[in-house]
Amino acid sequence: MKNLKMKKEFKVIADLLPNGTRVLDVGCGDGSLMDLLTKEKNIEVRGLELEKQNVQECIYKGLPVIQGNAETELYQFPNQSFDYVVLSQTLQAFNKPDKVLKELLRIGKSVIVSIPNFGYWKVRTSLLFFGKMPMTKTLPYSWHNTPNLHMCTIKDLFNYCDEKNIKIQKVIGVNEDKISLIKKNNLEMKNFFSKLGIFLIG
Amino acid sequence: MNRKTEDIKKIIVSKPLKLDCGKTINDFPLAYETYGTLNENKDNAILVFHALTGDQFVTGTNPVTNKEGWWVTAVGPGKAIDTNKYFVICANVIGGCMGSWGPSNNNKETNQPYGLDFPVITIKDIVKAQETLLDYLGIKKLLCATGGSMGGMQLLQFCATFPDKTFSAIPIACSASHSAQNIALNELARQAIMADPVWNGGKYFLKNTQPKNGLAVARMVGHISYLSDQGMQEKFGRKLQEKADYEFSFNADFQVESYLRHQGNTFVERFDANSILYITRAMDYFDLSKQFKGGLVEAFKKQKTKFLVISFSSDWLYKTKENKDIVIALNASGADVSYSEIVTDKGHDSFLVDEPEFLKTLKGFIDSMYEKFKNEKRI
User: Fold this and answer.
1) Quick count: other Cβ atoms within 10 Å of Cβ A79?
2) Cβ atoms within 10 Å, residue B234
3) Complex ipTM, two decimals?
4) Most buried residue, A28, A202, B265, B328, by most Cβ within 10 Å?
5) Which domains are seen in chain A, by residue range?
6) pTM for the whole structure
7) Residue in B with minimal Cα distance to A62
């Protein structure tokens, strides 16, 4: 189930990326996205991953991966050395997401960031009606063991980019059954109905 | 030293080799060994570079010492570097004492062993000498080249000097230049040898002997640096060597003393003291950034080789930090690089012992590279 959901997100990300580009996947996990991009889009990928088990998985698949922490080790990548930097559903888990985002924009000519949307209606109603921290498929953790330190909504990130003069090229809302473009004029509604937001910025 | 050198394979390198010191050599012997079979497409060759006191006998039984090859944990039939599948090559470094041109060889000009008349060589000289072996074996491009410690340094030099010679590379527990601490430890080893009166300015061969005491101490220094503090504590602690209490003497009361003495004593049977001087010097002179004016990034420019850098968490001789610096430089030059730190308490020696996570990583990478290399060749 989790795999299927991931595949949908990765499919959207893959569609955003032109063939033959150079892409850094920050927090690349077991390399599923890198594998997809290499095989289907002839993209030159690099991964950065913290979890040892995942690093091994990537190496076994022959995918280039560097074991390291995105929070502290992005400095090793030169300015504008990748066409795109991808960060899938991890921005909210950093101690300083603003600093990480700045680093991503330094390394990549463009950046793709996906976030589990805390503005999704099920998340909102969970807190409103049950008075409990929300637990959904995209946010499967309890308050005491969640790695998510800085949850945000699609609207939050949208406004943040505006505020910081980060160019928003495209925002896509993702649900099980469909994907949709998010613009300023439908932001309120999409922020309510999208489970996942995928931002192409920079 | 008792040498059964008739079992050593050798080529005589006729092509002149200009050494970094300025001297040019030719017609020098290069000893090597191979394991497994080179396939028809010649795309399954893996070159292994040995470390300071290693030799070309990677696996199986070393015919000279009758002991197991130094990397028997990783190389052999069914092992991480599977000799049923891959063709493994290893050459003895020049400056060494297992058949390649070294200070114990006869100097035609004096009709005596070279001793200190042997030129001071560098890692680059060592690597250039070994590259000739690939031509001899008819290998245009290796599937992989690998090596730990000084073997890793040779590998970095090999990739920088011959950027198209290997499809993939695995530098293990090494560094792109020797640190002050590395040089200091090597100096300790050299001084131990030179302080032994038997050494006699390197001319001990005149009396057909070896500065055994000095060489043994040099080896002890090495062994301390190969183990981690924790690993040593766990292995030996304060345990006494076959005795109930202190002897109130300077005999080897502690197990750790006994271990070091044993390592020192067995080493002098198989290694030449002058070779240690020359090879440690080559290591100390090694500084890849110095060779390339733009630094380490420049050294790896135009790399097509796919790298996997491996370090060990408890290695204090070639620390994770130094291995990471290699990764950073490779990244900055745009090379294809993977990096993995193996968590272990076995210290620098980790690459030589049975360390399952390390061996799995090695195997996984090489096998995946083989698939890629075959595909690339097909296209």
Assistant:
1) 7
2) 12
3) 0.88
4) A28
5) 2-201 (3.40.50.150)
6) 0.94
7) B368
